[in-house]
From TrEMBL:
The name this protein goes by in its record: Protein kinase domain-containing protein
Binding site for ATP: 535
Region of interest: Disordered: 276-316, 394-434, 672-736
Signal peptide as annotated in the record: none
Compositional bias annotation for Acidic residues: 721-736
Single GO MF annotation: protein kinase activity
Domain Protein kinase: 498-736
PROSITE patterns: PROTEIN_KINASE_ATP, PROTEIN_KINASE_DOM
Biased composition (Basic and acidic residues): 288-299
Cited InterPro entries: Kinase-like_dom_sf, Meiotic_Drive_Suppr_Kinase, Prot_kinase_dom, Protein_kinase_ATP_BS
Repeat among keywords: no
């Protein structure tokens, strides 16, 4: 049945009538040009393989009464509100949303999420805010629901929308809560709870929308078809004894939650069959010791013996395992306890239980057929439960500081009586006489084991990356196009380790991380080098751009250009899906360094300005045009040195006119202004000699953004769809 009509509102029971409403069925667009792409695994699933062991999902169990529980949360709050507090229900305003018909183009996961936002989200945030702050008269929303856009616009085509959530608005600078005007005063003593909530983490609940197609419905139906004892959580396949050490306290569940998990179910979730449940979480190093004999140093086994036939992320259909892993990882990142899966007409709600690392999942239900209670009541119950749970966790986290857990992995002190240790020490003294910097040693090695250790990440097993292009800083005897073979296993002196410690940027070419390097010398001493940067590219077009960026840096290195990143190599993931460019850290962008963050004006010294101009002059002299001179690509390091980064849009052999034009842009940017990239750049003689590799035609899962720079992002994201480069006029030109 469908309850497609907006409720008729009577004065009595207006709220009840609103709560009993369920939306009309949505139908896929009849326009063949508007497809509902079947969900595929998004490229960023790479990160989900690096979740901390303590945060990884171990099992999925059914929770039959979750939906009823959540509806009751709304019922209880409605029952506790007095007629006086209820005041006037803004029926006309709210029912306008309920009447909103789906647009005919509804198909993709992003349009499903947008439809949900205007027809359900707007109403439910208003009602939930009223129930949480009953004294308010205005029915304004202090909890919000939104789909957050990302810099990677190609994600819209994956058929999965994972960036929607319930949240409280916070000030970006000081993380103070921004409630609907007047609500802060009404909260009285409870205001501190909400403040704490905002500081604790403003995201309260996670939504995963899937495109409107039969594949999505099948996926939703399969979400609990796993063995109860263990969930097959996918990790990297490298065999390696990791050196990462961390103290980490698993976030706690609230002592009392607005839903109930029967004791029996909780007990069965807590039952850890160590053999069974850890089997999938155990990286291969613990199960296969074949590479270590008694007296030998442990060898590491890469994740594959062959290079993948393409390094680019291949669109593979999303499986139920993949979807659960994706949703779990997203909820972990949001630190939310509830996850809602929605594919237009069907829905499932889940509880992420932190302590037992279990996902408790409701049965699938038809959102259009919700009756007693209606769909709006269930959603309001879900919103309020999410908020109350987050407030409780924020409060408890403040009250009981969690004990600091020491990592069980300890570094062994070398045994002074160990003759091999003594020999190693002697050798290290010898090598100390002629020390090579660690980065120079790593530059001669072809295998990189990559580990993530920041936020929710602490890789249970590293990813294996093989060198695809040489270091441009330290000389190597290798031929320029040398492709190193992949060995069966690697001794410590044959590889280097890279630890990603934070994410510092996310652009059209890739995700940029800060990184530390560790190498073990032949003599056995471990050396480290901090302050590196690794940019990872996933999609084919991004990878073409990254390889081009490397080629540009190669040209600049040949011409001895300084003031640009030093590149230590390009690497390919042996499990496919990613390539990575290793560079030195050039500091912070002049955009991020602006003294007044509320203004767009950047400020640099005259010496720095002169240096930026000098660098660009030498770049031009090397026969390269940057093509993206913006405040986000001009960096200053901790010593005040200037750097120009991000050459993925760069072009070879520019005309004199184009170089002059770019220098004028540099003048504007270093004066604190911004160039308007929507302006077509003028034509000059010899422009046709300029060349650059064209990005491949976007696959159906990718949207073309040729030469469109990354929009400047705020939180929530602002609409910058009109931004464009001065190069767009040229993007249709033929190129070699
Ligand atoms: N070598 C570096 N050192 C320090 N920070 C860096 C470095 N390279 C990049 N970054 C940071 O990462 C951000 C994104 O990097 P970059 O511009 O190279 O990526 P992109 O994917 O090409 O982005 P865009 O969409 O702007 O072209 C930069 O704005 C800068 O803040």
């Amino acid at each position: 049945m469908t309850c497609s009509e907006a409720p008729e509102i009577s004065t009595m029971g207006e709220l009840g009538t609103l709560l009993s409403w369920s939306p009309a069925q949505v139908h896929a667009s009849t326009n063949p040009a508007i497809r509902a792409p079947p969900p595929i695994l998004p490229p960023h699933h790479f990160y989900n393989k690096h979740l901390r062991r303590e945060l990884i999902l171990k099992r999925v169990l059914s929770l039959p009464f979750l939906v009823e529980n959540l509806s009751q949360t709304a019922t209880k709050l409605v029952d506790s509100i007095t007629a006086d507090e209820l005041g006037e229900v803004p029926t006309t305003e709210l029912s306008t949303h309920l009447q909103t018909r789906p647009r005919r183009e509804i198909a993709g996961a992003d349009t499903i999420a947008d439809y949900y936002s205007i027809s359900i989200g707007e109403v439910c945030t208003a009602i939930a805010s009223k129930l949480l702050i009953p004294q308010s008269r205005d029915w304004g929303s202090s909890v919000c629901w939104a789909r957050f856009t990302t810099a990677d616009r190609t994600l819209a085509a994956t058929g999965v929308e994972e960036h929607a959530c319930l949240y409280v608005l916070t000030d970006k600078e000081d993380r103070n809560i921004t409630l609907f005007p007047g609500h802060a005063e009404l909260l009285g003593d409870r205001l501190s709870d909400w403040q704490r909530l905002a500081a604790f983490g403003p995201k309260l609940g996670t939504w995963i929308h899937l495109s409107l197609c039969p594949e999505s419905e099948r996926l939703l139906a399969d979400l609990d078809h796993f063995p109860e004892t263990s969930f097959p959580y996918k990790l990297c396949r490298t065999v390696h004894s990791s050196q990462t050490e961390s103290t980490f306290t698993r976030p706690r569940d609230a002592a009392s939650v607005p839903w109930s998990i029967p004791d029996k179910l909780l007990a069965s979730a807590s039952f850890i069959d160590s053999e069974q449940s850890n089997k999938n979480l155990r990286p291969r190093n613990q199960s296969r010791r074949s590479e270590t004999t008694h007296n030998e140093k442990p060898r590491s086994v890469p994740s594959a013996r062959r290079r993948p036939h393409t390094t680019a992320h291949l669109p593979s259909p999303l499986t139920a395992e993949g979807l659960v892993q994706l949703a779990w990882a997203r909820a972990t990142e949001n630190n939310s306890s509830l996850i809602v899966f929605n594919c237009g007409n069907y829905e499932r709600i889940c509880v992420r239980h932190r302590e037992t690392q279990t996902l408790f999942i409701s049965p699938v239900f038809d959102v259009t057929a919700c009756k007693d209670p209606g769909y709006i009541q269930l959603q309001v119950g879900t919103y309020t439960a999410m908020t109350l749970d987050a407030i409780a966790r924020a409060k408890e986290a403040k009250r009981t500081p969690a004990p600091i857990r020491r990592s069980p992995r300890k570094r062994r002190n070398p045994d002074p009586t160990d003759s091999r240790a003594k020999k190693r020490q002697k050798m290290s003294i010898k090598t100390r006489e002629k020390p090579l910097p660690p980065i120079a040693i790593a530059s001669q090695r072809d295998m990189m084991f990559l580990t993530l250790q920041y936020g929710i990440h602490c890789s249970p097993a590293p990813a294996s990356f093989i060198r695809a292009a040489q270091c441009l800083v330290h000389a190597t005897k290798r031929k320029p196009n040398y492709k190193p073979p992949i060995k069966r296993s690697y001794k410590p002196e044959e590889y280097f380790e890279l630890l990603l410690t934070s994410q510092i940027g996310d652009g059209a070419t890739g995700v940029v991380h800060s990184a530390n390097l560790r190498v073990v010398t032949k003599a056995g001493s471990a050396l480290t080098h901090d302050n590196l940067v690794l940019k990872i590219a996933f999609q084919e077009r991004q990878q073409v751009r990254m390889r081009h960026e490397y080629a540009i840096y190669q040209r600049l290195a040949e011409h001895g250009v300084t003031g640009v990143p030093q590149v230590y190599g390009l690497f390919e993931d042996l499990e496919g899906g990613a390539i990575a460019l290793l560079m030195n850290n050039c500091g912070k962008t002049i955009w991020d360094l602006r003294p007044d963050k509320k203004r767009a004006r950047t400020v640099i010294t005259s010496v720095q300005r002169a240096r930026f101009i000098e660098i660009l002059t030498s770049v031009h002299r090397a026969g390269v045009r940057h093509c993206d001179i913006r405040a986000e690509n001009l960096l200053i390091d901790t010593d005040g040195e200037a750097f120009i980064v991000d050459f993925d849009r760069g072009r070879f052999e520019p005309s004199e006119g184009k170089k002059k034009w770019e220098m004028e842009i540099m003048d504007v940017v270093t004066e604190g202004g911004h160039h308007d990239f929507s302006m077509p750049s003028p034509k000059f003689p010899d422009d046709d000699k300029e060349w650059w590799p064209r990005s491949p035609v976007p696959t159906p899962t990718e949207e073309s953004d040729e030469d469109t720079p990354k929009p400047r992002r705020f939180w929530p994201a602002t609409d910058t769809s009109n931004e464009d480069t001065d190069e767009t006029d040229e993007s249709n030109e033929s190129a070699t």
